[in-house]
Amino acid sequence: MSFINKFGKTTVAGSILAASLLGTSQISFASSPGAGPEEQQQDNGAIAFGNTENPKNVIFMVGDGMGPSFNTAYRYYKNQQGAKTLTPTAFDAYLKGTNRTYPNDPKQNVTDSAAGGTAFATGHKTYNGAISVDTDKKPVKSVLEQAKEDGKSTGVVTTAEVTDATPAVYAAHVDSRDKKDEIAQQFYNDKINGQHKIDVLLGGGSKYFGKENGDLDNKFQQDGYDYVTNKDELANSQNDHVLGLFSEKDMPLQIDAPQQNPLLVDMENSALSKLEKNDKGFFLMVEGASIDKAAHPNDITGVMSEMGGFEKAFQNAIDYANTHKDTLVVATADHSTGGLSVAKGKDYEWNTEPIHAMKHSGSYMTKQIVDGKDPEQVINEGYGIKVSEDDMKQIKENAKKVQDVKKEVKDEKDPKLAEATTNLQNAIQKPINDASNTGWTTNGHTGVDVNTYAYGPGADKFAGNMENTQSAKNIFDFFANDVASQQNQ
């Protein structure tokens, strides 16, 4: 059993007062004045057909925790060390504006993923920990639910548990993000027009769909869904309705993942191939969730790995939109994580070469050591640079403390074990952060504005500095004005 549980991360939902389970309250609707037509940013000459005035299809991408410094760091990372001119990343040409991320929370003014996700999924700001409920704990409609009401196909793709905050806000309504069993049950039980809300659901979190939570995986299969658990099964699925769960909890970081695991771009491609068959269009949410998962423990190796995976998925979505002119692609973040700085201290340099040399993420090495493997062996196998004797000594001492605490506690969520694990993680991260000159300010979130990238019909609606709720309001309006889709009804 792994004793790692969100290193160094304070669960915001834990501080929220318990409330009764949600009833059958009416879902409210947020919208804004109608969106007008928009010309394409660029024309690559591809032959394409469809609604080019207003998007019929929307691919909404979330780089969880991807603050502006992450995009800057990734640009450095992709270029040769010391380059005088940096080649742009796939994101750069599509920058439209920034989003303000603050929640509507009585105690905190920096958002978590639940409140941030609720904002851009529903158009409502709410308290930290809330899954598509307002501050009165009443359900608020998501853009995915609106798409399903309109007869469109729907998909959710993530590298996290599919019951995690960002995917959950699109098809569940609970007062606390910690209620993952209930979120999974709502995915199955709650329907629109007699249909499950999500046609293609791909990510981690199989533990919430098994025997301990009502055999939901079997129930989905009985309702006509394919159930797949690895890359080959996903590739061979011919069904338009798929539940794909590729790990018990969060999916491994890309740098550490086994070959049988699909990458984010693989899951995205599979979803697109199924959703595009609907003449009325589709809504697809694609989350690079593990940018955030790596940033919480200040794991620069994991962050750059996940930024690479998210970039591939983003470029793939842009390529799709280039040949399907009725498709809008939007990419943004719910917040920034870790307070990443490109260089630290007095030195005017950020060195990416040590990061490129790494064989595994710090998070992976931490888990290996916590699970009882020899610390020196794990570090030698995972590090691509030499670790000093002093740093190795600190790692070994913290590893011993973790094992001592494990003997004392009965619960992997015990605060003593969480603290010991965080100290071990910090010791493991120190050599690569020092070698690369990477700075961090926190193991939590920061309140900075985040970048928004967009391409396709309606992209200009995301220009400028705006509230994160405006993303949902724009999409609601796009669907309301989707004449081509309405003609197919």
Could you characterize what this model shows?
The protein is α/β, with parallel strands linked by helices. The chain has 2 domains: 57-342 and 442-487, Alkaline Phosphatase, subunit A; 352-436, no CATH class. Helices cover 36% and strands 14% of the residues. The protein has 17 helices and 16 strands. It has helices spanning 68-78, 113-122, 143-149, 165-168, 180-189, 216-222, 231-236, 264-275, 290-295, 300-323, 353-357, 362-370, 375-382, 389-408, 415-436, 469-480, 483-487; strands at 57-63, 95-100, 153-161, 191-192, 195-196, 200-204, 226-228, 242-245, 282-288, 327-332, 336-337, 341-342, 438-439, 445-446, 450-455, 464-467. The chain has a 10-stranded mixed beta sheet with strand order 7-8-6-3-9-1-10-15-2-16, sandwiched between helices. Strand 7, helix 7 and strand 8 form a beta-alpha-beta unit. Helix 2 (113-122) packs parallel to helix 16, helix 12 (362-370) runs antiparallel to helix 15 and helix 14 (389-408) packs antiparallel against helix 15 (415-436). Mean pLDDT is 90; it is low at 1-49. GO terms for molecular function: alkaline phosphatase activity; metal ion binding. Residues 385-412 form a coiled coil. Its EC number is 3.1.3.1. The active site is at residue 113.
